[in-house]
């Protein structure tokens, strides 16, 4: 596994293989972010696997969080890993059953979480081409839409998608070496601000894809926000960045 010390906690990235599940080996990629008050608080967990669907990964994550709540106030990561190795088959079977039940529900009766939106401000990008490529890949992998926006010295990332994917993106952004420092060494993003994280409202337009765009004037950037029904978001967060 990989270990990332953080000022706001610690992150672990662990890969485990579960043998002979559904006649194939399943490689689970788990990311645990332990907050500073862990284990009094459950960790943030993200789950990825090429052998499982996104919905199945979400079910695995939900079950791990359920288990984590049973271990509050005691170290739990090792126990959670052992638990999922023993119970993954049952979680996947249950997931398939739930999935079949959901297809019989009308859309109006769906209890699915709404779409969320995240606005980030980056101070700078030294290795711009590599950084942009990384952000594009994360957005694609997590099925997030939105914009990476450059206007003068302002760099903004606006994302829309499932709340779990938004949270997963934030963990990646904080824990991965995405840029280089002044001496050219790979480094993590230390100067990122979360300007806004909120549920997408009915007046907001949904972005159909993720795009990287450059704007020559503030007016052009403002128009991008206005077109997406995000005029208030622009007024509140973008002009102060110019001061």
TrEMBL record:
Gene3D superfamilies to which the protein is assigned, alphabetical: Ubiquitin Conjugating Enzyme
Location(s), subcellular: Cytoplasm; Nucleus
An annotated GO BP: positive regulation of hypoxia-inducible factor-1alpha signaling pathway
Superkingdom, taxonomy of origin: Eukaryota
Keywords (A to Z) from UniProt: Cytoplasm, Nucleus
Principal localisation: cytoplasm
Annotated SUPFAM superfamilies: UBC-like (SSF54495)
Any matching Pfam family: RWD
Entry GO terms, CC: cytoplasm; nucleus
InterPro entries: Prp3_C, RWD_dom, RWDD3, UBQ-conjugating_enzyme/RWD
RWD domain mapped to chain residues: 1-91
Its biological purpose: Enhancer of SUMO conjugation. Increases SUMO conjugation to proteins by promoting the: binding of E1 and E2 enzymes, thioester linkage between SUMO and ube2i/ubc9 and transfer of SUMO to specific target proteins which include hif1a, pias, nfkbia, nr3c1 and top1. Has no effect on ubiquitination.
Protein's recorded name: RWD domain-containing protein 3
Organism name: Tyrannus savana
């Amino acid at each position: 596994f990989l270990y990332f010390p953080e000022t706001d906690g610690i992150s672990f990235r662990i890969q485990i293989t579960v043998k002979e599940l559904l006649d194939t080996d399943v490689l689970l990629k788990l990311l645990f972010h332990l907050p500073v008050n862990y284990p009094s608080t459950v960790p943030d967990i993200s789950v990825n696997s090429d052998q499982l669907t996104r919905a199945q990964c979400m079910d695995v994550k939900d079950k791990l969080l359920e288990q984590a709540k049973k271990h509050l106030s005691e170290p739990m990561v090792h126990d959670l890993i052992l638990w999922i190795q023993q119970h993954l088959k049952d979680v996947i079977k249950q997931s398939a059953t739930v999935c079949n039940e959901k297809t019989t529900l009308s859309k109006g009766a769906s209890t699915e979480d709404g779409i969320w939106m995240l606005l980030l401000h980056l101070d700078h990008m030294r290795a711009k081409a590599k950084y942009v490529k990384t952000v594009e890949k994360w957005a694609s992998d997590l099925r997030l839409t939105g914009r990476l926006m450059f206007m003068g010295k302002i760099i903004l990332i606006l994302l829309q998608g499932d709340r779990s994917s938004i949270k997963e993106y934030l963990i990646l952004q904080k824990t991965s070496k995405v840029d280089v420092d002044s001496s050219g060494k790979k480094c993590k993003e230390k100067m990122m601000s979360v300007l806004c994280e909120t549920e997408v409202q009915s007046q907001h337009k949904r972005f159909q894809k993720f795009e990287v765009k450059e704007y020559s004037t503030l007016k052009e950037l403002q128009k991008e926000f206005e077109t997406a029904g995000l005029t208030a978001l622009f007024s509140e967060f973008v002009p102060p960045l110019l001061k």
